[in-house]
Description:
Elements: H1 7-16, H2 19-35, H3 48-62, H4 66-84, H5 87-101, H6 103-116, H7 127-136, H8 142-156, H9 163-183, H10 187-201, H11 203-215, H12 217-237, E1 242-248, H13 251-261, E2 272-278, H14 285-299, E3 301-302, E4 308-309, E5 322-328, E6 331-339, H15 340-357, H16 363-377, E7 396-400, E8 406-410, H17 415-422, H18 424-428, E9 430-435, E10 438-440, E11 452-456, H19 473-505, H20 511-521, H21 527-535, H22 541-553, H23 557-576, E12 586-587, E13 597-599, E14 611-615, E15 621-625, H24 631-637, E16 642-644, E17 646-647, E18 655-664, H25 669-680, E19 684-693, E20 697-706, H26 709-720, E21 725-731
Parallel strand pairs: 2-6, 13-15
Antiparallel strand pairs: 1-2, 3-5, 4-5, 5-6, 7-8, 9-10, 9-11, 12-17, 14-15, 14-16, 18-20, 18-21, 19-20
Amino acid sequence: MDYSRYEKLRALVRGSFSSETLRLVDEALAYADERLAGMTRYDGSPLLEHGAGVACIVISEIGLGRNSTLSSILHDVVRIAHKQQTQEEFLALMSDLRARFGEQVAGITMGLCNISELKLKVANEQAGNFRDLIVSYSEDPRVILIKLADRLEVMRSLDIFPREKWRKKSWESMNLYAQIAHKLGLYGLKSELEDIALKYLEPKDYEHIVAKLEESADERRAFIARFIVPIEERLQKLGIHYHIKSRTKSIFSIWNKMQKQRVPFEGVYDIFAIRIIIDCPLEDEKRLCWTVYSIVTDFYTPNPNRMRDWISIPKSNGYESLHTTVSAEGRWVEVQIRTERMDAVAERGIAAHWRYKGVGQGAATSEQWLSRLRELMEDTPHALAQRFDAKPATGEIFVFTPNGDLRKLPEGATLLDFAFDIHTNLGATCSGGKVNNRAVSIREVLHNGDIVEILTQKNQTPKADWLSVVVTSKARNKIKSFLREEQAKHARMGREELERKLKNWKFPLTMDEAVAYLAKYFKVRTGTEVYGLIATQKVDLASIKEILTRHISGAAEEERRAAAAEVERAKAAAREAAPARSSDALIIDDDISKIQYKLARCCNPIKGDEVFGFVTIGSGITIHRTDCPNARRMRERYPHRVIEARWRSTAEGSFRASIRIVAADMTGMANHITEVISRDLKLNIRSMNFSAASGGCVEGVVSVEVPGAAVVDTLIHSIMRIKGVQRAYRINN
């Protein structure tokens, strides 16, 4: 590929990171170039130029690291594959991407993909909800920062987009993304997004303010020069190292003030600010900032109502500065006093705060600021903090409660799904509802923007046919759970009733034999179903007595023998139930059978892994994965003992796979993981061990029974979607 097209990015990487990072960036560019071949932007340039542009912003304007840079380059590959590929193809792509660039890059690109698929069509009053919605989807905080860089690159290039997209993207940038940037302390990025958005939303107002600023530029510069003369003289006399910048208020801020205060351009009195930036050690920061404040107020009269002290108590996003507004030559001037470190935080937000604070501390510092950023972002309504379902990419709809709370549901969701999404008890007792004030049944399919109200009845309980009504995994799992509880209760009641009657009747047969015969008689599969028939009075006990009397008398001798055999088979199966057999799972060659072999413990191969056989001295053939840590040594030193091996396509059974998980130390994390494995994927957990790790994390290994390697990819993919999970990957033991 032509790397010269992306030389700006490569130069930034060379200046900021190691040669190994540059190699990975080049690999990512080549990888994306191959998969995005032929795809262009609206002006005909390669689509990859967008990803490269985002990566430049991520490095130079936000200050993120290698994984974020790689994710920026690759995010369009994942986004387009998510839309166009089948689930199997997409999982294969993610597995390949994970192998090449690591778990974090895979997780970040998936988070970016999820946000890209949000449909942002909503009125101004709901903008706050959507801001929180976007934030709540970002399981890794870097996703939000990269998404902001992505949006900034789009806005800088908005001229190449069709005119009909200008207004929508500008509205989103002004009302959603700029507000998130503000929340995270990225003030420069926030102002640029707002200014570009205003240019497209209100072009006449924008041009008017630009012209006015140009007209007054010379006069403003002359005033600033006069204003700072006495301050500079005193600073130099005291030996304080400093530099002074003047900052014109953003075009959007001026426009906003003109709108709110209903004044012309000339009526906005704080068009610009003077920023005095001190270069000093950390321990002298507060003292020198207040010294400079006293110097400024010695020469100019401050407005006591416009004093802002964010040095003693910084803002939650790390912003520190001392602001005062003083009077000079009959006009108000805002003066901002801060240090070089504080200025870096003000420009780059929370990321710069931790990077500046922890130079040389490496990954630990990175984890600290990610943790702090996560705290900032998680200040959102819990109702919106919903993670994505395990299934990739179906459409989504947004519906509202009568109070205006926003809920996300998949396309095709019904009133019953909505009820369970609000609360389990609301779903369990749901009898119908209203959609846009229209009475509907529980089967009503919801649409984007619907206002939904749920009606309940105390005696209502979930029914088995409700499973055909719902589409969300949450509703389905809750209904199944209730039905299982009901079934267990009925089984307990029915068994107790049958045991009591058998004793009274004094029949010469065991409980197991009676139940096995009744199951065959009523054509049901299990004893639990027999007990259910008794508990729900679908079969009366007089009929059961008559049936068992015939059975005992020999009138149904053949059925009796079959029932006894069934009991023995059930007992034998229970005795032999053990970790799944794999004796028939593997063949060495089509014409060789009954060869003694065992699966190697060093790499724990499972069906679907690429494998080979190794002839040992006294243990027959050992089967290893081709990527086993010992594979290279065995192939090089004993090539004559290596034989080809493959899995039988019809192999059945289960294998143990061990997944290492690193996650934030959050309440209920273990429950979330077990729910995904057991409830969502219906897999058996063999063991699970977690312990505290550094950086507010927990780390552990979960061993799960799986039918094959393909399921492991799905399992890891599902675990990575759990909020707070940072890494999940298969290990050998």
